[in-house]
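Below is how a single chain appears once it has passed through the pipeline. First comes the sequence as given, then the structure the pipeline wrote out for it. We keep one example in the README because the format questions we get most often are answered faster by looking than by reading.
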Amino acid sequence: MTEITNVAEVEAALLTLNDFQKQIVAAETKRDKSIEFYRSLIENAREVCRKEVERIQFESVDVRHALKKFYDANPPKKGKTHKFAGGSFGYRHQDTCYSIGDTVADADNPALLEFVKNGHEDFLRVKESVNWAKLKTALTFVGDDVYLKSTGEVVPGMKAYPQPDKFDVKIGRVTADDLDDDWLKEDNS
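Resulting structure:
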């Protein structure tokens, strides 16, 4: 169909678009079902792997405990580490852990953030970024130059690329419930 010249052709074109929309929904529905199928396979594989890792970690606790007993009974003559061809073991310094209430005190802890905001700003990290949505409404352009509307100040290095209007056709919304079983088969051509 290259040219539409009458109402019947308009109706046919809209039906064609509706048919295309059904094809799209059918393809998306098949995709979603496939994704769900593979997600369940992946989740099953993760669970099998988790159980195997858990088993191995449980067994390694016994070996680690035996090495700790050996270390405690035979401290190294030099340093804090026993070194062997297969590896080394010993006590390692660990950083102090902090908590606020029942939660770990880290950079994202709300109570810690509030404390730092109130008189300890030198520990506050601020991430700067442009409010792009607001800035776009404040811009105008003439030729290659982009200006702030309010001051006429040129925004250095910025260029504007006006976009042409996009032709759009709206048809009724099609969902998977609108499809016959034939639409969900592998080939609809």
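The two ends are 17 Å apart (CA to CA).

See the next section for the split statistics.
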